[in-house]
Amino acid sequence: MKLLTKTEEILLLAIWKLNDEAYGVKVREKVMDMTGKLFTYGNLYCTLDQLTGKGFVMKYKGEPTPERGGRAKTFYKLSEKGLTALQEAFEINQSVWDGVSLYSFTRN
Amino acid sequence: MKLLTKTEEILLLAIWKLNDEAYGVKVREKVMDMTGKLFTYGNLYCTLDQLTGKGFVMKYKGEPTPERGGRAKTFYKLSEKGLTALQEAFEINQSVWDGVSLYSFTRN
DNA sequence: CAATTTTTTTCCGATAAACAAAAAAACCCG
DNA sequence: CGGGTTTTTTTGTTTATCGGAAAAAAATTG
């Protein structure tokens, strides 16, 4: 085997969708939007670090903003490898769920 | 949080798709069809047991068949709870991947 | 019953998930 | 400058899942 985990897949996709707005707090919100579930920060940053370690994402420090408070943000973006992995995840998902729709579950 | 894992999701779906043909070996083949990846049996049965323990699937022994060799099969089927979980997984996937297509990845 | 086949079980180290709590780094204002 | 407040990130710990190699079981044949 060897497949992205659910969490990895969702975080990669969230970062990709956020484009150049992808830092911890925003990623967390995006994931909430996408799934209706809220990651704890521990869980979130831990997985972000794993993804970084595997070369799927790159991180870089942002400049402090002129807004009240808050330490400098750490931004994430997909590497080539990360984008390829995300694309493969997409294709596998398509193949896995092929032919299934909400109606499929109500055929008794 | 709390989401089905990738493996759980795929196995539930495979069992559902296999209907009344869902025993270990067939499930493994079905997953191979769906994902292009091959589970080891250790991994497979381990996850099937987890799913059973969580009440997502039920197992029952099949009768020995008239074919050469082979011990009796253990069949799996989704419980109500399992079907509901699968359905929820489907909906979350839809929401998560909403608006994404293969072309999305080539927009440079 | 010995040989063969198909299917399932066991076991274990490596990874990943989940969370709570603490720490850092920035800004504001006296 | 220094205390207070805010936003963001880090740390540490426990539990659950993954991934695979190897062994065991149960059935049929001759």
Write the layout of secondary structure elements.
Two copies of one chain form a homodimer.
Chain A: H1 6-18, H2 24-35, H3 41-53, E1 57-61, E2 74-78, H4 80-96
Antiparallel strand pairs in A: 1-2
Helix pairs in contact in A: 1-2, 1-3, 1-4
The first copy, chain A, binds a DNA duplex (30 and 30 nucleotides) through α3.
Describe the protein.
The structure is a homodimer of 108-residue chains. Chain A has 108 residues and is mainly alpha-helical. Chain A has a single domain (6-99), classed as Winged helix-like DNA-binding domain superfamily/Winged helix DNA-binding domain (Arc Repressor Mutant, subunit A, Orthogonal Bundle), CATH 1.10.10. In chain A, 51% of the residues lie in helices and 9% in strands. Chain A has helices at 6-18, 24-35, 41-53, 80-96; strands at residues 57-61, 74-78. In chain A, strands 1-2 form a two-stranded antiparallel sheet. In chain A, helix 1 (6-18) packs across helix 2. Chain A is globular and about 55 Å long. The model of chain A has no long low-confidence stretch (mean pLDDT 92). The interface between A and B is medium-sized, with 31 and 31 residues. Chain A binds a DNA duplex (30 and 30 nucleotides) through residues 1-2, 5, 7-8, 23-25, 39-43, 45-47, 49-50, 64-74.
